[in-house]
Recover the amino acids of this structure.
């Protein structure tokens, strides 16, 4: 069971969760009420889908992950998963800066109207959620896996709320997946119940509000 929980923790690292959310929404059929389907990720061209995934993979996962490796090599942090509460501020600030730059890049460097609004809002909401998590982590350790899972589920739910047709099972499966991720962190005794729900709550609420404002 410990091996399974550890594997789950690595497969569903917080940094990779935005990419998983996009893969689900891009490749599982859904339809909005309008004729042009401007905010339906499923109807993006294959080339644009791959470009978006590559950008999110770079700014949300690869760049922060390489930064973590650098901090680990310099012994600024003791582990890649940043288990120590006092070590989390710098890695989270770096990740927030990547998200902020990515949001700026999407707003200013992509042709107007080419990307659905959800793509623009995802890194912006992630930046806000991470900043709030940094502040809260100064008082209480915040589960980063919980934060990532919360943002993942908020994106899934917010996206499908504006779709007229979609497989309802996606919501249930995504919710169960988040439960499994949080349970694995509890089983490994990396967090208390309060800490995993604190992280999940921040990620979900902040990203959900970002999409609906």
């Amino acid at each position: 069971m410990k091996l399974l929980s550890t594997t789950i923790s690595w497969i569903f690292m917080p940094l990779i969760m935005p990419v998983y959310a996009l893969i689900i929404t891009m490749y599982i059929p859904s339809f909005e009420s309008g004729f042009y389907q401007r905010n339906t990720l499923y109807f993006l061209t294959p080339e644009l889908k791959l470009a978006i995934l590559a950008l999110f993979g770079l700014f949300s996962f690869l760049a922060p992950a390489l930064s973590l490796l650098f901090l680990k090599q310099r012994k600024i942090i003791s582990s890649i998963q940043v288990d120590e509460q006092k070590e989390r501020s710098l890695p989270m600030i770096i990740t927030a800066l990547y998200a902020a730059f990515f949001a700026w890049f999407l707003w200013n460097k992509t042709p107007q109207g080419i990307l659905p609004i959800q793509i623009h809002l995802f890194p912006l909401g992630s930046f806000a959620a991470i900043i709030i998590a940094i502040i809260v982590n100064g008082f209480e350790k915040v589960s980063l896996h919980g934060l990532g899972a919360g943002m993942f589920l908020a994106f899934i739910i917010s996206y499908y709320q504006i779709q007229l047709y979609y497989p309802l099972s996606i919501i249930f499966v995504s919710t169960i997946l988040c439960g499994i991720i949080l349970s694995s962190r509890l089983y490994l005794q990396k967090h208390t119940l309060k800490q995993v729900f604190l992280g999940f709550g921040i990620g979900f609420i902040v990203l959900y509000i970002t999409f609906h404002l």
Notes: The CA atoms of residues 66 and 167 lie 36 Å apart.
